[in-house]
Amino acid sequence: MPFDYSSLFRPGLPPPAARWRGFPRYNFVGGHNDAANVPVAEFIAAAESVLSREGRTLATYGLESGPQGYRPLREFLAASLEARTGMRQTADEVLIVSGSLQALDLVNAVLVAPGDTVILEEATYQGTITRLNRLGARIVAAPLDEGGIRMDALAGILDGLKAEGVAPKYIYTVPTVQNPTGTVMPEDRRHELLRLARAHGVPVFEDDCYAELTFSGERPRSIRALDDGGGQVVYCGSFSKTVAPALRIGYLVADWPVLSRMLPMKTDAGTGALEQMVLAEYCAVHFDDHVAGLRGVLKEKCDAMVEALSAEFGAAASFAAPAGGIFIWVTLPEEVDTWRLFEAAQAEGVAINPGVEWTVERALGRNRLRLCFGHPTPQVIREGVALLAGICHREFGVPVRGANMER
After folding, report:
1. Which CATH number does the domain 40-286 belong to among 1.10.260.40, 3.40.640.10, 3.40.630.10, 3.40.390.10?
2. What is d(CA 296, CA 299) in angstroms, rounded to the nearest whole number?
3. Does domain 26-39+289-405 sit in CATH 2.160.10.10?
4. Whole-angstrom Cα distance, residue 183 to residue 168?
5. Residues linked to residue 327 through DSSP beta bridges, in sequence order
6. Strand 171-173 to 204-207 pairing
7. Closest Cα partner for 347 from 25, 32, 31?
């Protein structure tokens, strides 16, 4: 008999993982990206070049660049972020991390204790919600509209917390191509968010992982740029969506008094060295052209998803075409429970994200779902959405049977 660990696991663990059986045929979950756009040949050339030149620095932790990460990559980011977002920083204000999830962990490690209050967008990144819940934080949900967080609602939340004697640890926002809604916060609203944050002495945690993927190629200045050296905004980005998710390379930008407290909490002995070296070599030459090409591919896939949802669900599916990125946020009629739909679809090879995973208040997400169009081809998108519509009709009578269901 194998040893029984069941009585030894500590309380509060998440449910056990299922064994991975491979991706489903119609995979509309996760942050996967377009496989054909992974620059394999360029990575090979970059790896050969940088390893021939600097490979022996692998003998030291930190590649002789120190604990903040490979300095050429930090220098690329400092210059590129200034050009793209309007932020001004040096390489010494950039920390390389193992994906944006580690960025979240580090910010929480230095700011959030059990019982502390954090303000999140009412629909937001699942990883942020789950991490704060595990920390025992109090999450306050800020309502959204087509421009991101509603500033009237945020002002009311901050005033209400002040009346309670509660100082929030930060306001978390994904202002540019919001996850999951795909909206972009206008610049005047960003100024107002900063004004409110300053008035109440609350930091802003700006998650900008999708900002380079606006289909127009244009974006407002980052909130941290608008802070103009005030140090109130901690900024997070990632190469997962612009280059390749499996690289697991993200970055934090903050003033040194904040970074200096994060570094002792980053106890992994350094983010993957080869990934950093290859990215720095590759990005210095190819990043802008690569991202411009990727935007066009993702726009084509987004159009296929929008067309498929309209054709297969008709008026039963309410959604706004995203301004960029790889996700679309869909609202179905009240009688549809997207968790049940998720379970039924999964059994037939269609993977979706039920909305309850992406909303602070589960009731808000009950009849919503997030679909990722980044990885599947347009043809697979159309086939998968048609199958999903048939499953939804069978389970909930939605959409009603019509021409689009006669197959």
Report:
1. 3.40.640.10
2. 5
3. no
4. 25
5. 372
6. parallel
7. 25
Q: Phi first, then psi: what are they for 74, rounded to 5°? A: -65, -35
- pLDDT digits over 4-16, tens only? 998 999 998 888 9
Looking at 55-115, list the stretches that DSSP marks H as alpha helix, in order from N- to C-terminal side: 71-85, 99-111
Six-digit token string for 16: 């056990």
CB 393 within 8 A of CB 403: no
- pLDDT of 113 reads 97
Pairing of strands 327-331, 368-372: antiparallel
The candidate with the shortest Cα–Cα distance to 234, out of 210, 199, 202, is 202
Provide the residue ranges of all domains of the chain, joining segments of one domain with +.
26-39+289-405, 40-286
21-52 burial, b at 16+ Cβ within 10 Å, e below that, comes to eeebebbbbebbbbeebbbeeebebbbeebbe
pLDDT in tens, 81-125: 999 999 999 999 999 999 999 999 999 999 999 999 999 999 999
Q: Are 105 and 132 in contact (CB under 8 A)?
A: no
The reported pLDDT for the residue numbered 404 is: 47
- Rounded CA gap, 317 and 328, in Å? 11
pLDDT on residue 13: 87
Structure confidence at residue 1 (pLDDT) = 85
Residue type at 117 in one-letter notation = T
In this prediction, the residues of the chain whose per-residue pLDDT falls under 50 are 402-407
Q: H-type helices in 136-186, by residue range? A: 151-164
Radius of gyration in angstroms for the set of CA atoms belonging to the chain, rounded to a whole number = 22
Q: What is the pLDDT of residue 407?
A: 39
Residue 9 buriedness (CB in 10 A; 0-12 / 13-18 / 19+): exposed
Kindly list the distances between the CA atom of residue 218 and the CA atoms of 38, 154, 213, in Å, as whole numbers in the listed order: 23, 26, 9
